Amino acid sequence: MKLTRRNFLESSLAATVVLCAVPPAGAATGRAYNLELRPGTAQLVEDPSVLTNIWGFDGKVPGPILRARQGQPLSIAVTNRLAQPTSVHWHGLRIANAMDGVPGLTQEPIAPGEAFTYRFIPPDAGTYWYHPHQRAWEQVARGLYGALIVEEDSAPDVDHDMLVIADDWYLGDDGAIDEKSFGNLHDWSHAGRMGNILTLNGKPYEHLEVSAGDRIRLRLIGTTNARVLQLAIPDLRPWIVAHDGHPVTPYLASSDGVELSPGQRTDLIVDVRGKPGDKIPIVELSAGDKLVAGYIVIGKGAPKARRTKATPDALAANPVAKPAAVADQTVNLTMTGGAMRFLASAQFKGEQLDGRTLALDHGQAWAFNGVSGMPASPLFTARRGETINLKMRNDTLWQHNIHLHGHHFVELSRHAPGDDGARTVTTDRADAFQDTILMQSDEQSEISFVADNPGKWMIHCHMLEHQASGMATWFEVT
Ligand code: C2O
Ligand code: CU
Prior knowledge:
478 residues, Immunoglobulin-like, binds CU-O-CU linkage, disordered N terminus
């Protein structure tokens, strides 16, 4: 390719930006980034002549990768160049409440043209992500998200550390985002707004370049609004080493792949087997058949010798407090509403309203404990350090994906309709911390966590249309 003046300018400009954005690791002041939320374009479909208008951090999807060191300060100056207010939430990070990015609870929205600087110290290493928490159902769907990686003090022994950010997009035949479906009450009261195009790292077919024999770390991040993805690499045998940022004892992923609900992350370590020139498909299985989403491409380099140690070591645990065996408080969270079991009535902004008024006048279709939308008073108040057990019941016909802010929990038990009482969970997540949990229709789940981060924290369904149409509440730690 010919180096034109214009390309040269662009690439030297990009290099400058990177240099000032990422001071060397360990700089005493921590790392500092600048991000602009603004419109941009992206090639989301195969035809390179079709560009989609998106909104992105720095105009790109995904936004820049932010890297932090565990326990080291990070500052991110955010400027809103959109035509609507916004905020940025650092999904999964147990940080100071004032930096959590929830308009109406922890900060004022950032108005168009205004800026806000987020400053925090990430306590946990692992894979996290950032996205707006204002009209998230629209802003995230238009492409506003990016990865935030908190580096371990001692990194695992891998040849590449790679991101796989998976998203679905609802595009029209012209490749433009389908805008008339935003706010569609039918989607809101069903499974949410689903896309018809799948991208990995914002590309129609991502190619991850490696060498034969490499051991790679893949950080999977699910940024769909509502679709629960199922990603697999059928030709390789990945180990799962972390969920939602937190290490688990490495175990082999099943051939069904990895379930990734909106907001969840899973870290894989995988040995690349094959020969130079091979293209190893990454597939999505949730629709029943294999949809090729991207490839791991083996480059020409000489194959590396296999690691002598077959199974990777577990990553170092994060400093999350273990919940006490006996909870200080047990709180119920019952989900109701949605299509086919519509709310007869619920409380909304302090008023008891019938289901029809809730839906038609307020766009509300779901409730937590009989309340639609954010209540004026918290679901519960905890004294700092208390162990809270949350008994969740999904009394709807739909999946929900419950996310807790500022805290990570373990799942104590789960039972489906027909089971007698709760049984102990036998999944590999039983003693693993997580911040987002998928529940099936009519399931019950009891989760437990130490409320040790003072402030006001949201609990909501991370199917973003469900969050907007009722499934949101909060708790306070004093
Ligand atoms: Cu990923 Cu309340 O958010
Ligand atoms: Cu939901």
